Amino acid sequence: MIKSNIDLGAYNHIVGAAVWCMNGNMYDVSVYSNHETCIEIIVLGIAISHGERDF
Questions:
Q1: Separation CA 44–CA 28 (nearest Å)
Q2: Helix segments in 1-55, DSSP class H
Q3: Looking at the domain assignment, is residue 27 inside a domain?
Q4: Which of 9, 15, 31, 53 has its CA 20 to 30 A from that of 2?
Q5: What is the pTM of this model?
Q6: For position 10, what pLDDT does the model report?
């Protein structure tokens, strides 16, 4: 999923992560790294905001 959604543009440092939930749902995120937040925390937050609790 990350490969199909990546936008290389003019940026040199893009990070991505994905989480696969126990029910089979997958959430992924790809961002330009210009912050100090770990991408893993962001993707977990996305999954949790969609109601996921079992990873």
A1: 9
A2: 2-5, 39-49
A3: yes
A4: 53
A5: 0.69
A6: 58
The pLDDT, as a whole number, for residue 30 is 84
Alpha-carbon span 47 to 21, nearest angstrom = 8
- Whether residue 54 lies inside any domain: the answer is no
Amino acid 41 reads: I
pLDDT, averaged per 10 consecutive residues of the chain (55 residues), comes to: 65 81 95 76 95 95
Q: Which two tokens stand for residue 14?
A: 């893009």
- What domain range is 19 assigned to? 2-49
Residue 32 within any structural domain of the chain: yes
Residue 16 is predicted with a pLDDT of 87
Paired sense of beta strands 14-20 and 26-32, if any: antiparallel
Q: Is the residue at 30 inside a domain? A: yes
